[in-house]
Amino acid sequence: MAAKLLILGGTTEAYDLADRLAALPDWHVITSLAGRTADPRHAAGETRIGGFGGVAGLVRYLDEHAIRAVLDVTHPFAAQMGWNAAEACRITGIPLLRLERPAWTAEAGDRWQSVTSWTEAAAAVRQSQAQRVLLAVGRQELSHFVDIETAWFLIRLVTPPAPLPPFYAAEWLYARGPFALADERALLDTWAIDTIVCKNSGGTATAAKLLAARERGVRVIMLQRPARPAGVPTVADGEAALAWLERLALVGLNR
Ligand SMILES: NC(=O)c1ccc[n+]([C@@H]2O[C@H](COP(=O)([O-])OP(=O)(O)OC[C@H]3O[C@@H](n4cnc5c(N)ncnc54)[C@H](OP(=O)(O)O)[C@@H]3O)[C@@H](O)[C@H]2O)c1
Fold first, then answer.
1. Cα–Cα dist 6/68, whole Å
2. Pfam families, alphabetically (predicted)?
3. What's residue 250's pLDDT?
4. Terminal CA-to-CA distance of the chain, rounded, Å?
5. Which pLDDT tens digit goes with each residue over 24-35?
6. Do 7 and 94 lie in a common domain?
């Protein structure tokens, strides 16, 4: 009988992994979504939606559904779920793997300032005397910057927020990545950007702005990822996750 595998999802990587695993006979894949979006895409295999109710709820779920392995593929900026998964898997003895795309790292020529909160990022905009700022953050984060009088903002979002937050001086731009290097160069030049504010998402879709910034000596205020529990084995892609599952199947799945 196929062994049950729980994917903590909500990311492209989780959907891709479910696609690949659903085709294999060894695993019955259940993808869990937090339920933040109204009509979420369902993953290949089974999908469940909604929080578990903390560590205790997750322990109960793992037991009741006879889950044999957990893959935490939540977003790098999802701050809590990974901790709950680590604790629940420690309690139950169920193997846990974290799949996370690698963070970007600064290279020679980069002018990055690392911050650990949006409050700190807003303070850094003020203190650095930035004049023309590309704000590449989510709509929920805009409130941290709306009171800054000393800078003009170019605010790039996927779709317009309603209502528009009342920035003192701002231009709104709506676009969905991936963004090409030539376009990012043109964007920084056209708008004479001197500072970018963004979070360390990693991956290639939105990395070109960092390369364009390095070429131009543009400052980058970069929100670092939240802390993760120590001791959880972590891989960077689906290939490595499949290899981990294969090894697990070889040593047996019975608890
Ligand atoms: N934060 C981001 O920037 C971001 C970006 C893209 C996608 N997402 C996705 O959106 C979801 C929620 O993000 P978040 O930042 O609120 O996460 P979070 O801070 O790590 O989690 C908060 C709570 O939401 C529930 N939860 C989170 N992920 C879940 C999942 N996959 N299945 C079931 N319950 C889940 C858990 O509730 P209980 O304690 O009740 O179990 C958890 O304690 C995550 O699945 C994440 O992958 C987040």
1. 8
2. CbiJ
3. 67
4. 15
5. 888 999 999 999
6. yes
Q: What is the CA(7)–ligand 1 centre distance, in A? A: 12
pLDDT of 253 > 70? The answer is no
Same domain (yes/no): 95, 160: no
Ligand 1 binding site (Cβ under 6 Å of any ligand atom)? 8-11, 32-34, 36, 51-54, 57-58, 74-75, 77-81, 84
Q: Examine residue 163 and say whether the peptide bond preceding it is cis (omega within 30 degrees of 0).
A: yes
Q: Of all protein residues, whose CA lies closest to atom 13 belonging to ligand 1?
A: 78
Q: Which atom of ligand 1 approaches the CA of 54 most closely? A: 39
For residues 89 and 118, state if they share a domain.
no
Per the model's pLDDT, the better-predicted residue between 113 and 22 turns out to be 113
| pLDDT band at 252; cut points 50, 70, 90 | low
Provide the domain limits for residue 8.
Answer: 3-102+227-251
Average pLDDT, the chain: 95
Give residue 4 CA to ligand 1 midpoint distance, Å: 21
CA distance 115 to 36: 26
* CATH code for position 17: 3.40.50.720
Question: What's the number of domains the chain is made of?
Answer: 2
